[in-house]
Design goal:
homotetramer; 388 residues; alpha/beta; Rossmann fold; Dihydrodipicolinate Reductase, domain 2; 2 domains; 9-stranded mixed sheet; 6-stranded parallel sheet
Chain lengths: 388, 388, 388, 388
């Protein structure tokens, strides 16, 4: 019988809120997972942190993540902070023998990610688990799509077509929040959202990108400084500052398996709110997914007679599909946060079973390498650049 | 400052699971609601109940609902049982001074519903609140649609077109579960799902149905008896029994405001899983909603120039729309259970503010009267029948 | 070798325009049909008729339909006039030994339709062919749907759900054109557009409606008189007149095969332009069609594993589907008028092959009987009324 | 008053069929265009040509295009042959004083296209008109989109996202038809279909592509030789040959106006039949179009309140939209061939009015330069390449 696993979460912003929800509910819907205890929440600003503790339902709040990590009564560290802190926290936690789940992108550059992946490999030898939180792998529709591709339903893969379209900073007066600051965020649309579709393409096809040709572009080069840094909203302006990250990243890609890919990530597609979409075309069929319709997978079976073939809309709320039996009857939609509950469920199962959770820090490192190659290519007149 | 409100929930099936989730999370996302305590869960089968208590996260479990209701430390009673027990429990709870939220349909017939509505009116004089749980009112898309209609965006209303299509009992070997037993369920598709679209039409249009012409039909008249009654699945067959409820209910309707309506509820629409849809057409515009795309509202503005007009798909994940600010950024989908969290949030706010939660037991009684008129009409060669 | 068949068309309004197009192009795309000659166009207003002759490409124009029909060099009479003239023209043409294709609805009432069907049966004995022009039967998507149902893909049929929604007379100042005048048009939405979905339900299911319960409603009871009768637009107002037809017709229906149907036809559904839709649900699958997406058929195969099932969008532009090989490659959309070209192609093939074109005047009579039963039921408090 | 313009058409394959349809019908629907006479059809294979003459409805057939072009009684030359013959025919026709409409792509390379554009400019001085047949400009939905962008509805443009996806050669046993032969076709998906989306992006945005970074890929490198060259189907195999064109072309692009674009053309997207789609995102709104739904334009107005905004589906069958008044009432779909009728209508109007038809040969040359730059970039490790 497993004892309760005690969790410390670092960070309490958007990701902190959605991770808290997952920790709170995972045992209610997935009773086979180890029981957890929401032990400690960590953050820098004492008052806001206490507020978060109460609202999100954690036992304790501490402003010093080092102390939380060094505590004997903590089994799991959940890193929900901005990318510039991942390396330090994750490596410290792994060395302290804590299982680590870390928000994506794994790091702000390849060198940080490499160190983290190395630490994870070392820790793994002592049965300490680590996982990077590419939550879209746990969208049931994408899990179904992966099953289809793995089972050969799509045949030889030819095309991957992946977009991640948002529109939240179209307004030139939207302030210069931390996500637009290269020092904190590493990059813009590239690391924040292109990272997701790079990972999704690997998850679905089991094939890695070997080379890319890309462009990065910043449409709005100056923005008002935010009065105070509090997530996505900002108070009184204190002048203007320079946007140091990309507003959009576009690239073409070659995959190990011979497929060709087109990728686009942007925060400037008016009307597209969280349109993370991916299509894969193969010799025997195709799949299409768009997160704005996250409970649906489109699937075309090219082996059907041509007169009867077409993209079918599979409602991924069927109990025979991954994760869904835990929730509601067919046709009863699930939402964004469920993907995090699924992710933490899988993470807990891996701890329980002694298996390696996926995606690993090495998978996170791979994504970082692709991001890096895109940036290098973009800085080099789009010259086709190998992913190292 | 409000003390924690202590809740007793009766029933632990499908509705018990989704209500438990709402109670567990409401304070985490809506901090302005009174704090609640998940005090007691009640049910008949001791072992299954204890299981539910642990999984759903209630403090205590009791097999005797009367004792739960009579406890001084209980403030709220949440009724999630089958329709044949609503009257007794609800009236007892109200008389004991407990706020009551009761699953729909309010009762299995008009006479029971009338007694309940009367009890609710009496209780209301003592500031005891009651609410019938038509959760679809709390789908943000329908709340937006209501705002549009209330504000006159649709002009004079001409048509209501409402379907609730499912397919879960198409297989003739699907067993004779309680929902197919008139004594327990009152009726079939009529009370279970037509009730929802009747309520939704009233919620949206603020206009009541005055007369109906209907038909009821049972396609599969005999089914295997279930080995044991455990929700929607069943073990070994013990012979066959007669289906005593309708498989489908169809009716046309006249509204107070002069609009005409068509309604259809069925459990035999292959491929339609939980397709609760409603369209309203007015002189200045139209809205369309389908629960299988619950994060979307289609809206046509007929005052746009004809060359530029069309149904727009409003993604109802915008913070300026009802309920949504509590959750995630735009484009981050919410699901079925969120409607219950919203419902319980509104119920708690009404208790806090001393206002009357909506829909009231009187609203539930109105729906029951329409259901009754449909059944009368169906038994009378579809003769147009007044809703009394 | 067949000689050219010489055609006389009566009427030159909307239907005259679309029929002319079909006659002009049928030999260009379907070379196996008999060659035709666009010989004579008939109408009452000399100047407008001559205009139509030139624009539509007919050899001659005559203002006297009787003379056209009595000419020896005419083989086919195509009736595109309003419903109040069908009986006289069609019977005269059939008796004169001309093949007749007649616009729908066949007539303005059952008695006229009965006489026409009788005349058609008599003429048939002399190899004179007749056909009623329910063009939607020749939408490839509906032809595919019929193949699916005929082949048993849908199993036992349970539901028919058919709407025909338009919005062209929502404006109360839209004038009182002939389609709103009972004497000329027979009825409103009922005969004009409900007729189409009644025929489509019969075409698809091969099962007739045996009883109906209906309502008719006129939302706008007075309208400006049109200055001159010229189709759907009107000039200066000459006062106001009474609308003598229904704006909407709604009814429930029972089919011979045990299925139940809901039907709605309206000209008051803002934003719905020509939304003729039909869904059929059976024990093994479902189909859905909407004319506004006329190149698509949705098909759900309920025998697929539940985790992989869903409505597939079959693009009906595949050469293996009915009619399509004559046109363009897959994915190259066809339009409204193509259905008329298909219809006339089938009519010509029947003449060539000596077979009976479908739908026959008897089929048109059947539709008229259903329309009649709906009107009777509507006048009788929606009492379920047998289709005689 | 204008005399009839006499047309000679060169080629009688797929494009010959669809152009013939346009010539046959243009005067029937657009009476303000000059009257035309379908005088001569030209082709190499006598028997097949005569067949085409009869079926398509041309007066004469000649196997020698030079003679057709030199005839005094010919006013217009319509070039529907493969790309390798365009230059010779077009220049000869222009020099002979004939108005020329030429299928796209204008030529097989920049040098041919340059000569043609020069000849067109010379001819223009003598009032001889020329036009390249990018028919998608005449899809009403794209014409509406252009109006929106021209009028500023989209604000500053940020993104163009254009795909042209087909699947007709996925089968590796599909034969090596002329479209897969570089000598005849110039290139594969690049010139055949990427050409369309390049032109569409220019048409919509009025902004040219200045640089591109691309990749070309051939998935199936050998195919069976076709028995005889007859369009897209082939008889007995005569061995295998090498595919000398690209199966897919992908590229990113920079526009004069600062927007960034992603383009993809492929014949290997299973289930996508003729999915020519384009999305444009601007600071004030977005449009989206997909040819498989060619009667629809999606438009998002970003100046709407965020809670009410969304992509609206404009059914482009409204008489107030370009071209549509000539056809049918709202909601009555038009098809692929209508775009050619519109194109020829505009061409005839330009001849009548003495204006310059659009797109001009210079526009065709521009597209050729982009195609060329993509090929150069693809041959140069995707290095960003200027469009000269």
């Amino acid at each position: 019988m497993f004892q309760k696993l005690r969790v410390a979460m670092i960070g309490y912003g958007f990701m902190g809120k959605v991770h808290s929800n997952a920790w709170r509910n995972v045992n209610r819907f997935f009773p086979d997972a180890p029981q957890i205890e929401m032990a400690v929440i960590c953050g820098r600003s004492k008052e806001a942190l206490e507020n978060a503790r109460v609202t999100f339902g954690w036992n304790e709040a501490v402003t010093d993540w080092q102390s939380a990590i060094s505590r004997k009564d903590i089994d799991i560290v959940d890193i929900c902070t901005a990318g510039d802190t991942h390396e330090e926290i994750a490596i410290a936690a792994l060395r302290a023998g804590k299982h680590v789940i870390c928000e994506k992108p794994l790091a702000n550059n390849v060198s940080e990610a490499t160190a983290m992946a190395e630490a994870a490999r070392d820790a793994s030898k002592k049965s300490v688990k680590s996982m990077v939180a590419f939550n879209y792998r746990r969208v049931p529709a994408l899990a179904v799509a992966k099953q289809f591709i793995d089972s050969g339903k799509l045949g030889t893969l030819y095309h991957v077509r992946a977009n991640y379209l948002q529109d939240w900073i179209i307004d030139p007066e939207f302030p210069l929040v931390w996500r637009l600051d290269k020092k904190v965020a590493g990059s813009g649309a590239l690391g924040d959202i292109a990272a997701h579709i790079i990972d999704a393409s690997y998850f679905l096809t089991s094939s890695k990108i070997t080379s890319v040709s890309g462009q990065l572009k910043t449409f709005i080069k100056e923005r008002p400084l935010p009065g105070t840094y509090t997530g996505l909203t900002a108070g009184a302006s204190l002048g203007r500052g320079t946007v140091t990250v990309d507003d959009t990243a576009v690239f073409t890609a070659n995959f190990e398996n011979g497929a060709i890919g087109t990728f686009e990530a942007t925060r400037f597609a008016a009307g597209r709110k969280n349109a993370m979409s991916i299509e894969v075309n193969g010799s025997k069929g195709s799949i299409y997914f768009n997160f704005e319709d996250m409970n649906e997978l489109l699937y075309h079976d090219h082996t059907d007679p041509s007169a009867e073939a077409g993209f079918r809309k599979i409602l991924t709320t069927d109990g025979a599909q991954p994760y869904i039996a835990a929730w509601w009857p067919p046709g009863h939609i699930i939402g964004y946060e469920h993907t995090f509950t699924h992710e933490i469920y899988d993470f807990l199962l891996a701890i329980k079973n002694g298996s390696n959770p996926s995606p690993s820090f090495d998978d996170g490192l791979y994504v970082q390498r692709v991001l890096d190659a895109v940036a290098v290519s973009a800085g080099n007149n789009s010259l086709l650049t190998q992913v190292k």
